[in-house]
């Protein structure tokens, strides 16, 4: 099965990038640099089959790197072109993300 990180109506460049798996394997978080999106997939426990749960704006431009805290409750996203790091709250039961606004902005 082929999955995409692109929105159905996306016509610009595509560039799937970072992939982070929750410690329990229940959720997979991906970034797409082409449309500045984060995509959350749930992973079926028995089969590993992925199902899209959510697609959100990364909070900046060109999501380059991501880090999921060991608690599984916070996802940090470094956005290269906007020089920002955004912090997302991870809902423990759904894996869904909530942006908490830019955590850091780098100037220079």
UniProtKB/TrEMBL annotation:
UniProt-recorded Gene Ontology molecular function terms: 6-phosphogluconolactonase activity
SUPFAM superfamilies named among the record's database cross-references: C-terminal (heme d1) domain of cytochrome cd1-nitrite reductase (SSF51004)
Top-level division of the source organism's lineage: Bacteria
A Pfam family matched in the record: Lactonase
Annotated PANTHER family: 6-PHOSPHOGLUCONOLACTONASE, 6-PHOSPHOGLUCONOLACTONASE-RELATED
Recorded family membership: Belongs to the cycloisomerase 2 family.
Protein's UniProt name: Lactonase family protein
UniProt organism field: Streptomyces nodosus
């Amino acid at each position: 099965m082929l999955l995409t990180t692109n929105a159905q109506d996306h016509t610009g460049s595509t560039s799937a990038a970072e992939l982070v798996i929750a410690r329990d394997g229940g959720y997979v978080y991906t970034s797409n640099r082409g449309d500045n999106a984060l995509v959350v997939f749930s992973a079926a426990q028995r089969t590993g089959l992925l199902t899209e749960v959510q697609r959100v704006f990364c909070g900046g431009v060109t999501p380059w790197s991501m880090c999921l805290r060991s608690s599984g409750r916070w996802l940090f996203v470094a956005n290269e072109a906007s020089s920002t790091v955004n912090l997302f709250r991870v809902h423990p039961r759904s894996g869904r993300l909530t942006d908490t606004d830019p955590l850091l902005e780098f100037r220079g």
